[in-house]
């Protein structure tokens, strides 16, 4: 086991890292589940026309996957009080079986007197951050 | 045409009600690869203290797309070019998790409109409530409309 459980956190401690592969099939499945049918997430031609380097993952899918890092660690997703992120770089998803690899890590930035903590999440694709200011405020177990 | 900064403070009429179903939550959890049993098994949810299965934290984006983005796109006077729009940021502040059986309705507020370097930035706040007035989550989002260059 790497990382620390939510009961014994201190500023600086790390959450167990995760890496997730995202394929075109995942994008189609997410589009249907989230009702987000913007063609830049499934149609090469549209992505091309608007100047993207290829079909890209929904920013909200990357944010959801990054959220799993925090809720898996918490156990109870209801202990997540706030969660936000900026979408600073696209995850380009190739038309193959392997897809794009998104790597996730998290760190406790601050443990607060009121029993909450701030977790900073990092999501990278091809070595570069794709989410900016990805921050979760969580309630720690009493 | 840049978006009109006078839109700051504008709110759209309350949306229709969206009833959150167990099957939709499960479908969403599967789509994000999240195996947590509280999203699919009512007994696991009950053991964790919830009256029914809960939804993953980013689930409210479904309502944001269905109602908020739709309201903006349909507002001809606003003149949002959907084809040039990208999602800049998103955040959620939860009163409690969304759960199956919730009858949710929302109000979309335009908090500010900025024009910078040829791009438009639209900052939104979306208050998501049950139809009996319980606040569930407040979502904030920035939409960026890229200028034509």
Automatic annotation (TrEMBL), chain A:
It comes from Actinophytocola xanthii. Signal peptide: none annotated. This is Dehydratase. Residues 19-122 form the MaoC-like domain. It comes from the Bacteria. Belongs to the enoyl-CoA hydratase/isomerase family. It holds the Pfam family MaoC_dehydratas.
From TrEMBL, chain B:
InterPro entries: FAS1-like_DH_region, HadA-like, HotDog_dom_sf. Residues 8-136 form the FAS1-like dehydratase domain. It comes from the Bacteria. It holds the Pfam family FAS1_DH_region. Belongs to the UPF0336 family. This is UPF0336 protein BU204_16765. It comes from Actinophytocola xanthii.
């Amino acid at each position: 086991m790497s990382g620390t459980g939510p009961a014994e956190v201190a500023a600086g401690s790390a959450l167990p890292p995760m890496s997730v592969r995202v394929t075109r099939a995942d994008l189609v499945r997410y589009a249907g589940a989230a009702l987000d049918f913007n063609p830049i997430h499934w149609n090469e031609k549209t992505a091309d026309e608007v100047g993207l380097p290829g079909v890209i993952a929904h920013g909200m899918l990357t944010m959801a996957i990054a959220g799993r890092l925090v809720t898996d660690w918490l156990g109870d997703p209801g202990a997540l009080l706030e969660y936000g992120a900026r979408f600073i770089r696209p995850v380009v998803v190739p038309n193959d079986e392997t897809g794009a690899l998104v790597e996730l890590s998290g760190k406790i930035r601050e443990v607060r007197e009121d029993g909450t903590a701030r977790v900073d999440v990092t999501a990278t694709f091809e070595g570069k951050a794709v989410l900016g200011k990805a921050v979760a405020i969580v309630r720690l177990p009493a | 045409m840049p978006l009109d900064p006078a839109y700051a403070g504008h709110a759209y009429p309350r949306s229709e009600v969206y009833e959150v179903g167990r099957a939709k939550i499960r479908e969403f959890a599967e789509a994000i690869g999240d195996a947590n049993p509280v999203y699919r098994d009512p007994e696991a949810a009950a053991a964790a203290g919830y009256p029914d299965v809960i939804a993953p934290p980013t689930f409210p984006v479904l309502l944001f797309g269905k109602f908020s983005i739709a309201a903006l796109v349909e507002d001809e006077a606003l003149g949002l070019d959907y084809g040039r729009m990208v999602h800049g940021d998103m955040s959620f502040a939860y009163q409690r998790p969304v759960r199956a059986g919730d009858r949710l309705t929302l109000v979309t507020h335009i908090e500010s409109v900025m024009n910078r370097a040829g791009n438009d930035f639209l900052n939104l706040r979306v208050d998501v409530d049950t139809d009996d007035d319980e606040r569930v989550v407040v979502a904030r989002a920035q939409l960026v409309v890229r200028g034509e260059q």
